[in-house]
Amino acid sequence: MSDLPRLELRQLRYFAAVAEEMHFGRAAARLHMTQPPLSQTIAALEELLGTPLFQRTKRSVALTPAGAALLPEAQRLLQQAAALPDLVRRAASGASGLLSLSFISSADYSILPPLLQRFRARYPQVQIELREATTDVQLEDLLQGKIDAGLLLPPLPEKAAALLEVRPVLSEPLIAALPEGAVRKRGPVSLKSLRELPLIIFPRRIAPAFHDTILSCFRDAGVTPHIGQEAIQMQTIVGLVSAGMGMALVPQSVSNLKRPGVDYRRLSDPAPAIQTSLAWRRDSPSSVLRALLELLDEPA
């Protein structure tokens, strides 16, 4: 094993040329060299490996069993070595590598699918690792360097804002998710007309600003909501609405989550816009992440 570091790609390239041509003269011509240094290199390789690789006569050249075993491995190594410059260039440009991306559940019904489709079409060699996580979990993962970027709900707490960059990617209004039949009239609904329904909402620690925005909608409408249930994931909240447990205020894109027993309605009250943003560490983003950011700059 101590001799293996001395093995050179040049020796393997010379060996493969002779093995493929089965003639030292033709192999030397193919390599644009004279025959004596070629023969010397093969002899040095055989000495390094401790076994003959060719059976030579004045009229023929044949591979020994050791040479036959070495040939496919040598060809594989030479192909890999030839591909290294392109591999490095693609990695430097963001065309290959690994992108670790987290997302809040509502992004799965809006920005995430088309973004992934565009990115996959542009960079098919990039491996994408997806994790669904709430905003608070994403912030911890970003600060600890466990993920490259996250689709989350701003604004960020002061500690995170000092270390992270944020780019808005989607703005959409809040709408009401109601149990089917809770409101008979068609069209937008007012929060006052829904005041008897328990509110289903996520714990404030998950996304404090979003939580406060929802409650401020009720406050501005002169309604004090009764919080009936708390749930972390948006699909769970919609599932509880479907079960008749209450109503919820959700980003408009969540209406793409079709559940029996759920009636999505626009609000007649002023509906604040909810931002979904991409966040990442500002210290030296990876080339793959830079490729994603450049894609976001392009029109969809």
Structural class based on helices, strands and sheet pairing? alpha/beta
Question: What percentage of residues falls in helices of 4 or more residues?
Answer: 40-55%
Ends apart, CA distance between termini: 55 Å
Strand content: 15-25%
How many distinct helices?
A: 10
Instruction: Supply the CATH superfamily name of the largest domain.
Output: Periplasmic binding protein-like II
Just name the CATH architecture of the largest domain. 3-Layer(aba) Sandwich
The parts where pLDDT drops under 50 for at least 5 residues are none
How can the largest sheet be summarized?
Answer: 7 strands, mixed
**What is the chains' assembly state?**
single chain
In short:
This protein is α/β, with parallel strands linked by helices. It has helices at 9-21, 24-30, 35-49, 65-93, 112-122, 135-143, 158-161, 208-220, 234-242, 287-297, and strands at residues 54-56, 61-63, 96-103, 125-132, 149-152, 164-179, 199-201, 227-230, 248-251, 262-265, 273-281.
Describe this structure in words.
- Strands 3, 4, 5, 6, 9, 10 and 11 form a 7-stranded mixed beta sheet that branches.
- The protein has 3 domains: 4-92, Orthogonal Bundle (Arc Repressor Mutant, subunit A); 96-169 and 276-297, Periplasmic binding protein-like II (D-Maltodextrin-Binding Protein, domain 2); 172-275, Periplasmic binding protein-like II (D-Maltodextrin-Binding Protein, domain 2).
- It is 40% helix and 22% strand.
- It is rod-shaped and about 100 Å long.
- Helix 8 (208-220) links the parallel strand 7 and strand 8 (227-230).
- The protein is built from 10 helices and 11 strands.
- Helix 1 (9-21) packs across helix 3 (35-49) and helix 1 packs across helix 4.
- It has helices spanning 9-21, 24-30, 35-49, 65-93, 112-122, 135-143, 158-161, 208-220, 234-242, 287-297, and strands at residues 54-56, 61-63, 96-103, 125-132, 149-152, 164-179, 199-201, 227-230, 248-251, 262-265, 273-281.
- The protein has 300 residues and is α/β, with parallel strands linked by helices.
